[in-house]
Amino acid sequence: MQKEKRIFDREDWPVNIMLLIAAFFLLFWAIGERSLWSSEGRWAEITREMLTSGDFFHPTIGGEPYFDKPLLTYWVIAAFSAVTGQLDELIIRLPSALAGIVTLLCTMYLGRRLWSQQVGRLAGGLLLTSYGLLMYSRVGSAETENLAAIMLAVTWYWARRERPGFVTFLVFYLIMFVGSHMKGLTAFVVAVLVVFPDLLRERRWRWLFWPSNLLALGIGIVVYLSPFAYATLTQPEIYQQNGLHLVFQENILRYFKPFDHQEPIYQYLVSVPLLILPWVPIFAGALVTSAVSWKKLDGKTRWLIQVIAIIFVFFTLSGSRRTYYILPILPFCMLLMAVFLVEVRQEVVGKHRDRSLLIQTDVLVVAAILEAALGPVVIWLLMRKVGWELPSNLGRSFLIVGAAALLAGAIAYKVGGTVLRNVQLQTIWALIFMAGILQGGFFVWQYNILESCRTERPFAIRMKAAIESLPHERVAFWHRCEDKVLFYMKWDPPVTTLTDESALRAFLENDQPGVIISQGRYIDEEVAALLPPQPTYMEDRHTWESPERYQNKLNAWFINPCISQISMESKEANHAK
Fold it and tell me: 440 and 462 in one domain?
């Protein structure tokens, strides 16, 4: 029997320690400095309301049921909050960053176990410097946790592939079913699709009918259903959403009869190259190589290509499409590139490999030169000639990041010549260092510099101070409550949400002072006629933002003249500071 391969053997420690240090820097550094973005508000506010109410089985936003996603991602955030005693952007994003580390380790393990330690290292380096992993590991949502669950299940399958039995099956199902509580049944379905081609080989499909497998599957199903069953049995009278119904709606109905996110069928032809940036030239070379040398490839490499094709087709056939849906394809693309660069030795492959490396080198070198040379100039022109309000140190950051990438690539190439003694490996590791500097410079530094241009958190904080003296029921949202605003205002349920003009009229006709908060896009002519002529507070606008973007900005109308005057004075004082 083949000797068990661990993630790290003793001789691997120096390089792997360097990779892990780089991973902790790229995935964890300054992840709490940015304000909440996009769907992060849902995870933040639902977790905050769980901690406030003590009810961890009935998620709400503003006191209203919101069971659109499973519970486990909220629980993980709540656990970190309980340990640290705080709930902020860092805690909300910490589970995603840890899931990024898990995904990286699983990818390295698969590369080492199925091919060689060089493939594992290289796949890890490519994955760590990819846009997809860095983007979604630094965001407080469920995408990377879902990816980590899939990779853990696949890693367990290959680690225990030669030792089928009850324990092997049970752990495999538990990983998938627990992982399905992160984002949805995608964790189960994709993991099954990934191992299925290998199950068909050597008649391993017979395992499916073993009593031990059926028993393990039954236990996994019970574990999966338990939180939904408990939530239903303990459901308060005012809570009308059913978790299992929403599982059906979000995972099955959305797949066959989508009600939103209806992107064109070619969406993933754009999304996959975006997620694997900047490694598109090498991936293209790997795909061409796979086509021309298919018959000469070993079984595990064929399995890898089949997995990539199956995942792509599965998500493409879904009627509901988003770039991040297909994130599970990312580690397998990186493994294919590593195999293409290290393992496949046919002469025709060598030509494609050399051409791909040459194009990849040109792309990264030109990108670094443009960032160092043109980045500061473009920022200066936008600020001085166009009038954009940008941070003064943004241009300097482009110069530093671009120059550092060129220097790091040159040093890595020089050192690699004496250590690796392989021109192709020497080149690709130099490119990985360059990509790490460029990607890290953006996500760790430049992205945070741009935080000063964000306007939603400052608006919510000003509102929190302005409404402290108002009765709770006299703070109302028009059309919908905003999760990020609720989080920053720390406004506990119940939240007053007005959804029709009669409710708005009744609120405005009340003699008590109050405030209406709404995005501009929800204010039509009829509603505007009921409100004061001008909002008391307006979310800040920037000169480069389009009129459509202005419609997404938040406004607040104080409906009592005295309160309105006080608030205006407070606003002017804050701007003066």
Answer: no
